[in-house]
Design brief:
By secondary structure, the chain is an alpha+beta fold. The chain is built from 13 helices and 14 strands. The protein binds flavin-adenine dinucleotide (FAD).
Length: 291
């Protein structure tokens, strides 16, 4: 049973931010409501006010500026899954979005809601990490920009300050010749483990490498130390290095055993997905497979 609440409908970011600052703990941001309404229905939170951000036009766009793809926080998963700009410039994100939940969740849930809720079992963050995405925040003391990795602090925890809104995700382009891929496995709607990889190839070696993994620990992570190891190797050597990286993955990802599998199982699956993602992007970079 839902406790009584009021929905506020600001039409600008400044207005929304002012309402959040004025109402403090009594108010929460309301985007798609896919998570928020579940929490409220189960009595886990009882806000007096929902600040609906879906009527703020500036939060609902996908555009390209100076090569960067700018995605408004209130853009739904379904829109990202089907948007031609995202598909052409950020194929690994399209792939991640295609997997989110089911069509109802993808139509309702937003990118910002997904990142701000910070459920470890989430997809877009893992893909966005290999694109070096940043997030734009707006709050009582103005705007700031953070690398996505710094925004994702832990399980259900982000760098958002009280009264702050996530307004936009900015994604710089991969340089010419780079290719990216996203893979996941699931038992139910939400992912058990997911990975993203982006590479560029020169003279048969992985010249550029970015790797990320999600779901098995508190939050999605770039695997910078593994990237350093793999850079400069052939794909055969890279696959062998990833297979040997389970101790590193265990330390880095802090895997949590749960109903989806034990911690060692999740690390094993992550390393398998990483090798497959690397093989896939290398084939794409060589032109022997399509994006
Ligand atoms: C059945 C089911 C299956 C799912 N499967 C997947 C899956 O496979 N992969 C996956 O990645 N996700 C999955 N999800 C999660 C889904 O993607 C998220 O529920 C959704 O993206 C949340 O977005 P929302 O707009 O509905 O957020 P809301 O529910 O409106 O908000 C979520 C939280 O974020 C806060 N918030 C929202 N927007 C902002 C903002 N701009 N600034 C500050 N705070 C904000 C809210 O106050 C709230 O605390 C699943 C969810 C369900 C219910």
């Amino acid at each position: 049973m839902l406790s009584p609440f009021r929905v506020l409908h600001p039409t600008t970011v400044a207005e929304a931010s002012a309402e959040l600052a004025r109402l403090g703990d009594e108010a929460v941001v309301y985007a798609g409501g896919a998570e928020l309404l579940l929490l409220m229905r189960n009595g886990l939170i009882k806000p007096d006010y929902l600040v609906n951000i879906k009527r703020i036009p500036e939060l609902d766009g996908i555009s390209v500026e100076d090569g960067e793809v700018r995605i408004g926080t209130a853009v739904t998963h379904r829109r990202m899954e089907t948007d031609p700009v995202v598909r052409i410039r950020l194929p690994a994100l399209t792939e991640a979005e295609r997997h989110v939940g089911n069509i109802r969740v993808r139509n309702q849930g937003t990118l910002g809601g997904n990142l701000c809720f910070a459920d470890p079992h989430a997809d877009p963050g893992t893909a966005l990490l290999v694109y070096d995405a940043t997030v734009e925040l707006w709050g009582p003391s103005g705007g700031r920009r953070l690398p996505l990795q710094q925004f994702l602090v832990g399980t259900y925890d982000t760098a958002l300050e009280p009264g702050e809104l996530l307004t936009e995700v900015r994604v710089p382009p991969l340089a010419e010749g780079w290719r990216a891929a996203f893979l996941r496995i699931e038992r139910f709607y939400r992912p058990t483990a997911n990975v993203a990889a982006a590479v560029s190839i020169k003279d048969g070696q992985l010249e550029g490498v970015r790797l990320a993994a999600g779901c098995v620990g508190p939050n999605a992570m770039r695997l910078l130390e593994l990237e350093d190891q793999v850079r400069g190797s052939t794909i055969t050597e890279a696959v062998a290095l990833v297979r040997e990286s389970k101790p590193y993955l265990t330390e880095k990802l802090e895997p949590v055993g749960d109903v989806l599998g034990s911690a060692p199982y999740k690390v094993h699956i992550t390393s398998v997905l990483l090798t497959r993602a690397l093989e896939q992007v290398v084939a794409r970079a060589r032109g022997t497979a399509h994006d």
